[in-house]
Write a structure and sequence with these properties.
The chain has two domains: about 5-75, Ubiquitin-like (UB roll); about 85-165, Orthogonal Bundle (DNA polymerase, domain 1), CATH 1.10.150.120. Strand 1 (about 5-10) and strand 2 form a beta hairpin. Strands 2-1-5-3-4 form a five-stranded mixed β-sheet, with helices on both faces. About 35% of the residues lie in helices and about 15% in strands. By secondary structure, the protein is α+β, with helices and mostly antiparallel strands.
Length: about 170
C-alpha cells in the first residue's frame, strides 16, 4: 500500500493507505479526526470541507495520496492551543449560526477561505454566493451570513472582537 505523509493540524503523519482512499476517510478513520463529516457522498453538501495548503477543498473527492507533503487543516485545528476559538468559530457561536451542527465544520472552513480571498470585504450577496457549495438543512443561512460578516471584520482588523461586531 502507498504511504502518504502529510501534516494535519500542525502534526506530521505517515499513513499507509490504499490508492483509492479518500482524504475524508484518512482523517476520520485513520487519524480519528471526526469533525470532518460525510454528508452526501456526492460532493454536493460541503460537510467534508478542509483546508489543503490554505485552500478549502471537499475531502470526499480528494484522494489521500494526492495530499503527499500537504498541510491539512480540519475544524479540530482552528482553535489556538489555549482553546481560544478562531474568529469564525467565535462568530458562529455568538451569532447562533448553527443548529444541529452537522454542516458547521465545513461551513466554517469554507467561510474562512472565502473571507481570506476577499480582504476588501464581502457583501451579503457575495457571502451567500460564496457558500453555494455548502448546504445547511436547519438554519436558513441568515445567521450564518451575519456570523461570516462579523468574523470578516475581525479577521481583517476592522474590529477587535466578535462581541464588538455584534454591538
Amino acid at each position: 500500500m502507498p504511504q502518504v505523509t502529510l501534516t494535519v493540524n500542525g502534526k506530521q503523519h505517515s499513513v499507509a493507505v490504499e490508492g483509492r482512499t479518500l482524504l475524508v476517510e484518512l482523517l476520520r478513520e485513520k487519524l480519528r479526526l471526526t469533525g470532518t463529516h460525510v454528508g452526501c457522498d456526492t460532493s454536493q453538501c460541503g460537510a467534508c470541507v478542509v483546508h489543503i495548503n490554505g485552500e478549502s477543498v471537499k475531502s470526499c473527492t480528494t484522494l489521500a495520496v494526492m495530499c503527499e507533503g500537504a498541510q491539512v487543516t480540519t475544524i479540530e485545528g482552528l482553535a489556538a492551543a489555549d482553546g481560544t476559538l478562531h474568529p469564525m468559530q467565535e462568530a458562529f457561536r455568538e451569532y447562533h449560526a448553527l443548529q444541529c451542527g452537522f454542516c458547521t465544520p465545513g461551513m466554517v472552513l469554507s467561510a474562512i477561505d472565502l473571507v481570506q480571498k476577499h480582504p476588501e470585504g464581502l457583501t451579503e450577496r457575495e457571502i451567500r454566493e460564496g457558500l453555494e457549495g455548502n448546504l445547511c438543512r436547519c438554519t436558513g443561512y441568515h445567521n450564518i451570513v451575519k456570523a461570516i460578516a462579523a468574523a470578516a471584520d475581525v479577521m481583517h482588523g476592522k474590529r477587535d472582537t466578535i462581541a464588538a461586531a455584534a454591538e
